[in-house]
Give the backbone structure.
Amino acid sequence: VRTLVAEINQGLVRASSKSDIETTVCELFSESEPYLTACVAGVDTETMRIEPRTWAGADQAYFENLDMDVSEDAPGRQAPGGRAYHEREIGVSQDIKDDPRYEQWRDAALERGFESLAVVPLEYEGELYGLLAIFASRPYAFGESERQVLTELGDDIAHALHRQAVEAELERTTEEFRTIFDHIPDGIILM
């Protein structure tokens, strides 16, 4: 796991956009045992539906067809994604086959070989930048130490996403000022 963390952190440093960050994270997880696939998703605050944004790995159609509502009275609220979204802490299904909280999505997950799941909130300074879902090929893939590492890694990813958002906003503001100054007639002095 530590090797994977180092690879992801190197990718975070080198990434030049939000998309690069999400793609790098998903690809590295999906290429590392025992993980099969990874996805970064958001939650539409009006519909409370999980909306996958970026994914890599085994049978990506799972994310294209995912229909999960995490509102308070929906079944998805108790699933790992609902827990990660509402409590802002890692949500885990150690054995999808026997987890009643994941019953609605069980068959689609099992037919793809997804045996366990961890969903990590990507939160930095109170801002949720997304949810990282990681499916593993065996039950009980997310023990206590694994969950701690994933939580720390989620913090690193969220910080990188925050940094990219700040840099994008700075670039936008700089461009606006450039446009304004380019249209100021010569001879006007600002004091």
